[in-house]
Write a structure and sequence with these properties.
By secondary structure, the chain is of the alpha/beta class. 37% of the residues lie in helices and 19% in strands.
């Protein structure tokens, strides 16, 4: 399995230049990769039986002919908290975006309860119970906390009060400060809003992209505690993180 991030790509150049670049890095799609090894595929298939969500041999990228993911496998079972850990440029965020339909998958499949959801739109995935919290630009800063939650419940506005009560149980401060503008909150508090908003549609799977990034150690600890609480409430969580030590303390697998 090979990963490459957009930040690793040349800033300029033709598609042929990009193909040559990936070839130099031994990331060419025609090269056999871990995801295409028969024994590894069999092991993944065996372990992933009964998984709530799974990715099988994903090949995906941001540019035609330039693959960021080369045969990536992943699965999470009902109620699991799974960590994807690695340094910058490892392709962790790209894998989450491929699961959520934000990066085009050219080969392989993403399955939710054995239904093929590969390359579905984000709104279609939300309706099926998949939530996603990106690392950046994950709140509406000009809106209040309550208005952000309303945006999260846009597909089922009648359920707003019930869902917001559930979110407040997980993040009590969001209830007491519900009329406060989100742009005035700290980075850690904004992460709580972002995760809370994603929970407003009662997802069965929540994808978190580096929720502790840029936060102080104390706020990072709080975020990890909240993530564990979300998982304990019955939500399957897949979390991408660079903070390996702290992440491995809370995940079931990583």
């Amino acid at each position: 399995m090979s990963f490459l991030e957009p930040s690793d790509l040349p800033a300029t150049g033709s598609p042929d230049d990009l193909k040559e670049f990936t070839s130099e890095l031994n990331l060419d799609a025609s090269r056999p990769t871990r995801g295409h090894d028969a024994s590894v595929e069999q092991q993944h298939a065996s372990e992933a039986v009964g998984a709530l969500i799974r990715a099988d041999s994903l090949i995906a990228g941001y540019f035609p002919g330039v693959n960021i993911l080369n045969g990536s496998d992943l699965y999470a079972k009902e109620g699991e908290l799974v960590g994807i850990i690695g340094p910058n440029g490892a392709g962790k965020s790209t894998l989450l975006k491929a699961l959520f339909g934000l990066v085009n998958v050219t080969s392989g499949a993403v399955l939710l309860r054995d239904e093929d959801i590969t390359n579905l739109r984000a709104d279609q995935l939300v309706r099926r119970g998949v939530g996603f919290v990106p690392q950046n630009n994950n709140v509406f800063p000009s809106l209040t906390i309550e208005e952000n939650m309303q945006m999260g419940a846009y597909q089922d506005p009648k359920a707003f009060k019930e869902r917001f009560d559930v979110v407040i149980d997980l993040f009590p401060a969001l209830g007491t400060r519900r009329k406060q503008r989100t742009g005035s909150l700290s980075g850690g508090e904004r992460q709580m809003v972002a995760m809370g908003r994603a929970l407003m549609m009662a997802p069965s799977v929540l994808l978190l992209d580096e929720p502790s990034a840029g936060l102080s150690p104390a706020l990072q600890d709080e975020v990890f505690v909240r993530v564990k609480g979300i998982n304990a409430s019955g939500v399957t969580v897949i979390i991408v993180e660079q903070n390996a030590r702290r992440c491995l303390q809370i995940v079931d697998r990583g």
